[in-house]
Amino acid sequence: MSAYVCELCGIDRHTYAAMMACEEECHAENIAARKNHVSPRIMRPMHRWEDD
């Protein structure tokens, strides 16, 4: 299990291609988040300590 699974779309962002897919998937949500002055969810650190 990777530590970089996006909370929003569930895509594991461990490769560049996966990161791009995640950003496509989350694009609308992130625009909405910015309009509400909330930082985009995919930008939050996604490390989960239980994966250590």
Helix percent reads: 25-40%
How many distinct beta strands? Answer: 0
SS element count, helices: 1
Supply the helix-strand structural class. Answer: mainly alpha
Mean pLDDT level? 69
Largest sheet geometry: none
Q: Give the end-to-end Cα distance, rounded to a whole number of Å.
A: 10 Å
Rg from C-alpha positions?
A: 11 Å
Number of domains: 1
The low-confidence parts are none
Shape from CA axes? elongated
User: What sequence of helices (H) and strands (E) makes up the elements?
Assistant: H
**In percent terms, what proportion of residues is strand?**
under 5%
Features:
52 residues, 1 helix, 38% helix, 0% strand, elongated
What does this structure look like?
This protein is an all-alpha fold. The protein has one domain (1-52). The protein is built from 1 helix and no strands. The chain has one helix spanning 16-35. The protein starts with 15 loop residues before the first helix and ends in a 17-residue tail after the last helix. The relative contact order is 0.24. The mean pLDDT is 69.
Task: Give a short synopsis of this structure.
With 52 residues, the protein is mainly alpha-helical. The protein contains 1 helix and no strands.
Sequence-ordered SSE layout with sheet pairings:
Blueprint: H1 16-35
